[in-house]
Structures are given as C-alpha cells and as structure tokens.
C-alpha cells in the first residue's frame, strides 16, 4: 500500500492540550488502531486522511479495493463518495452566493423560467403551492419537507411530496439538493461538473475527483463490499447528481476539507454562514428521515445542521461533520475548525460504520453522534 505523509509528524498527532481527552498518537499507533478495528469489524477497505494546522498531515490506505482479486487500496484509489458529494456542492453554492448569483433566501422558483411543477421531475408538486417557499437555505440545511428520495416516500407511492412546510424542521433530503442543482445549472447556464471543476476540483488540486465517471479512473478504483465481504459491481455514473454521484480519493477529499477549514475560495462571511446552526435537530434518528420521534438528548451537544454540514459542540469547541452511505460504501468526515484539525475516513465496506464510534473516539477523543446517525457498533 502507498501512503503519503504531507507534513512530517516529528512527535505525534494530537488534539488541543486543554481538551478533556488527549491521546497523542504516532503514525505507527494510528495504523495499528485502524488495522485492529478493521480486522475486528470485518471492514474490507479503508482510507484515512488527517488534517493538522489546516493542512493535510497524514494520508494512508488500508485493506482491499477488490478483495476477490486481492487488490489493495492506495491513496490514489477512486472511491464512490456517496453523500460526501453534498458537502462539496454546498461549498460550491456558497461560492455562487459570494458572486451574487444565488441568494440563500430567495425562493428557488423565481430563478426558473417556468413554475417548478411544470418540470417533468417535479410534476408531483402540482396542487401544493408550498413549492413557492423553497429556498437554497432550505435545500442545504435539509428543511424542504421532502423525503430523502421519492423512492423512500413512507406512503410507498414513489412520489415527491411535502411532509411539512419548508423551514419547519430538519429532515435529511437528497431531493432538496437535486432541486437546487437544477436551479444552479439554470442560473449559471453551466452543468454542475463544469462548475465544480472550475471552482473546486482544479483550484484545490483534486485531479481524481468528478461528479461523473472519468476514463482516468479506470486505472485505480475500488469496489464496494457487502457485510460478507463479497464485492459489488462498479457503478460508473454518467449523470452528475449534487447529492451523491461524486467519485473521489482520500487524498483529494482531504485536500477539499483542508480548503474548507481555511476558507479557500469563499468569503469569511460565507464560511461562517455555512458553519453556523440553521436548524436545531431534535429527531431521535437521522433515518428514516421523516420519522417524527424526538429526543432531548441532542440538546446536550447542540446538534444542528448548517449549510451542507452537520454541527455539534465538542470538547474542542465547534465541530462539523458529513457522512456518506450506500451499499458497500460508508464514510465520515469530522472537523474542528477552531483547532484546524480534521479526520476523514472513507470505507468501501458495508461494515465501515460499525467501527466509527470507536475509531473517531480513539483518534480524536470525541464521541460522534453515532446513536442519532443509527450506527450499530460491531460486536466484540
């Protein structure tokens, strides 16, 4: 396996000395921790990125990109990014906000040449004028009132419809991001992939990242693996979807997160807005997204959503995070902006989430909101 050490860690990687929990870790200790948890949790493949002082500090790959073929992951291996796509799209939108091309609070329909229900993909919304209320802010903080995807509509009718008035509460929705993508492409007159290449991928050196499959990825890509470690066929996506079509590498996505921590390419105002609470989260679980069961447990960590990122309060101050999930793929990025530190984990395994609680705690001393996210720790 290849590894890239961007910044020499002469002593160790550790978080703030005044934090409640400090466990300095050498790179050898990090590798031992990761490989032990992978073996115990039957995680087929994993890639790790660590950011220190707002810069990539340690990037390493573990396990298999294709276990049946005995092919190992490396730091240039393309992974399906799943919902990590959303956070990157949110950053692109904030760039457009800075340019005055998108207003977070202007109803989206006002940007379009015809009413939203007149578009083929949104005919289901006819007869419910709440589509006139949806804004870019609602899409980015998951308050549109839509299901995650129409195929997950709890009424089993495969329709896109409102389950509450936009802005009323949090309910994770890829449909909202996809609608905003249509608006962004209309306003700019350019496809998402072109915009992302110009404003994100190229400036941040993300040469092996795209919202659509690229021929260059054929040289080094991972397969997703199920719980039994059987490999899944590779889905080469040819249509850009802001909510979840991105292909990337651990090296590229770590560069992106470092850029977010620094605020590269956006104003300080836009960055602060993106990472400020927009809606408090009181749902008992993130999924099913429309479940109305609530809990007060989230209040203790001030769990909320910003624009494209989840937020909570950690022993190190503010924290923001983003997950990614699909069959065979499970990812998590955890960031501490006041410390200039972050940990990004990408797995090509349906068992990946089972080690996230322990892995992130042992790497950072912070307990992620794993119960709300529905992560079931592996059984020792």
Automatic annotation (TrEMBL):
Residues 1-19 form the signal peptide. The keyword 4Fe-4S does not apply. Pfam families: Beta-lactamase. InterPro entries: Beta-lactam-related, Beta-lactam/transpept-like, Diverse_Enzym_Activities. Residues 30-353 form the Beta-lactamase-related domain. Keywords: Signal. This is CubicO group peptidase (Beta-lactamase class C family).
């Amino acid at each position: 396996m290849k590894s890239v050490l961007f910044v020499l860690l002469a002593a160790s990687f550790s978080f703030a000395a005044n934090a409640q929990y400090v466990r300095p870790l050498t790179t050898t200790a990090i590798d031992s921790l990761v490989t032990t948890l992978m073996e115990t949790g039957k995680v087929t493949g994993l890639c790790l990125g660590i950011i220190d002082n707002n810069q990539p500090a340690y990037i390493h790959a573990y396990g298999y990109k294709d276990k049946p073929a005995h092919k190992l992951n490396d730091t240039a291996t393309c992974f399906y990014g799943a919902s990590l796509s959303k956070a990157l799209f949110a950053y692109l939108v904030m760039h457009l906000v800075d340019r005055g091309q998108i207003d977070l609070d202007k109803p989206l329909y006002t940007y379009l040449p015809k009413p939203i229900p007149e578009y083929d993909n949104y005919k289901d919304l006819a007869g419910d004028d709440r589509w006139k209320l949806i804004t870019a802010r609602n899409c980015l903080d998951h308050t549109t009132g839509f299901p995650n995807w129409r195929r997950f509509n709890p009424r089993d009718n495969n329709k896109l419809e409102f389950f509450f008035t936009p802005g009323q509460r949090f309910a994770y929705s890829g449909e909202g991001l996809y609608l905003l993508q249509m608006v962004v492409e209309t306003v700019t007159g350019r496809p998402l992939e072109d915009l992302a290449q110009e404003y994100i991928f190229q400036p941040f050196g993300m040469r092996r990242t795209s919202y659509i499959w690229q021929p260059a990825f054929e040289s080094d890509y991972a397969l997703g693996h199920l719980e039994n470690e059987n490999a899944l066929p590779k889905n080469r996506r040819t249509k850009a979807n802001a909510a979840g079509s991105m292909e990337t590498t651990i090296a590229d996505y770590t560069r992106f997160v470092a850029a977010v921590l620094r605020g590269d390419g956006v104003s300080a105002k836009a960055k602060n807005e993106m990472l400020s609470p927009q809606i408090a989260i009181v749902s008992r679980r993130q999924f099913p997204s429309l479940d109305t069961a609530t809990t007060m447990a989230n209040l203790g960590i001030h769990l909320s959503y910003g624009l494209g990122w989840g937020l909570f309060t950690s022993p190190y101050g503010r924290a923001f995070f983003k997950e990614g999930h699909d069959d065979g793929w499970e990812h998590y990025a955890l960031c501490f902006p006041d410390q200039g530190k972050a940990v990004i984990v990408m797995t090509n395994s349906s068992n990946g989430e089972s080690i996230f609680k322990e892995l992130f705690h042992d790497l950072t001393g912070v307990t992620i909101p794993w119960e709300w996210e529905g992560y079931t720790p592996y059984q020792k």
